[in-house]
Amino acid sequence: MTTTSEMQASLLAEALPFMQAYEHKTVVVKYGGHAMGDPSLGQAFARDIALLKQSGINPIVVHGGGPQIGAMLKQMGIESRFEGGLRVTDEATVRIVEMVLAGSINKEIVALINAEGEWAIGLCGKDGNMVFARKAEKRVRDPDSNIERVLDLGFVGEPAEVDRTLLDLLARSEMIPVIAPVAPGRDGHTYNINADTFAGAIAGALEASRLLFLTDVPGVLDRNGELIKELSVTQARALIADGTISGGMIPKVETCIEAIERGVAGVVILNGKTRHAVLLELLTEHGAGTLIVP
Ligand SMILES: Nc1ncnc2c1ncn2[C@@H]1O[C@H](COP(=O)(O)OP(=O)(O)O)[C@@H](O)[C@H]1O
Ligand SMILES: CC(=O)N[C@@H](CCC(=O)OP(=O)(O)O)C(=O)O
């Protein structure tokens, strides 16, 4: 009979080939605002990231915080709305976005990783000239008239330039970067960038081996609410067009498509509410969620 400790040991041993495969490789983990909130899950997430670094892997955390920004805006009496999964961002909103993302959430994640005995460093696109944004151009087609128009989302940005100097330096150190999706434009403004888009740009620039999106659903769900385990780029585009994929899942899936097209190998959307989701996905046979394939 196999004892519990033998089972635990064999699970640890199972991780070896995965650790070897990812040694010195970059893994970008996007930690969504919907996956945050439960302190014990946050601690488990931080432990996963710490364990990756200890295993010789180069983890980079890019985080969101959409619900937390929404709560703060509400508290301040500022109205907020989304168009195509992106928050319409005026001058007052971008100040709150920067405060919540680069201020509170960023430092909370840094503290959680540090509490696991590692060295996390909190950054945003402004640090080390890492990311410069341009004003986002979101095109939508009116379903009735079929006319395309460009939405003005205010200070919503897209990553236009990514400089990897700082991240390369940190990869050779003990430091684990934790990055908030806020960046300056060459026009001097601060831009609010969707965290999924930001994570995709970082993964692309660093030629990451894996890009994981931790959210609050098991992955991409079909019309009946069933998990789609594997999704091709063509199928993904069709599900966006027919409305099966909506809201915050749109920028996530669009980023997955771009990352695949840029050569990032393993792009997965998975449930961040599953304890140790990152370790399960990377270091065991028990991967879950939706794998996006070419
Ligand atoms: N087809 C779909 N499959 C799964 N989730 C979907 C789908 N279409 C829309 N969603 C929504 O997308 C949400 C995840 O995106 P988002 O709210 O931006 O989360 P996060 O904060 O993790 O980035 C889900 O909670 C769900 O409400
Ligand atoms: C332009 C835009 O929509 N920016 C997002 C940035 C945060 C984010 O993306 O957070 P999640 O990953 O938790 O959704 C926002 O303002 O909510």
From TrEMBL:
User: Coiled-coil regions in this chain?
Assistant: none
Q: Which domain of life is it from?
A: Bacteria
What does UniProt give as GO cellular component? cytoplasm
Does Signal appear among the keywords? no
Entry keywords, A to Z? Amino-acid biosynthesis, Arginine biosynthesis, ATP-binding, Cytoplasm, Kinase, Nucleotide-binding, Transferase
Q: Which GO terms describe its molecular function?
A: acetylglutamate kinase activity; ATP binding
Which InterPro entries does the record match to this protein? AceGlu_kinase-like_sf, AcgluKinase_fam, ArgB, Asp/Glu/Uridylate_kinase, Glu/AcGlu_kinase, NAGK-C
Q: Where does substrate bind?
A: G65, G66, R87, N192
Q: What is its EC number?
A: 2.7.2.8
Chief subcellular site?
cytoplasm
Q: Name one Pfam family in it.
A: AA_kinase
Which residues does this entry assign to the site Transition state stabilizer?
Answer: K30, K252
Task: Name the enzyme's class.
Answer: transferase
Localization in the cell: Cytoplasm
The protein's annotated catalytic reaction(s) are:
N-acetyl-L-glutamate + ATP = N-acetyl-L-glutamyl 5-phosphate + ADP
Residues of the Aspartate/glutamate/uridylate kinase domain: 25-271
Family the entry assigns: Belongs to the acetylglutamate kinase family. ArgB subfamily.
Function field: Catalyzes the ATP-dependent phosphorylation of N-acetyl-L-glutamate.
Q: What is this protein called?
A: Acetylglutamate kinase
Q: Which organism is it from?
A: Aureimonas jatrophae
Which gene name belongs to this protein? argB
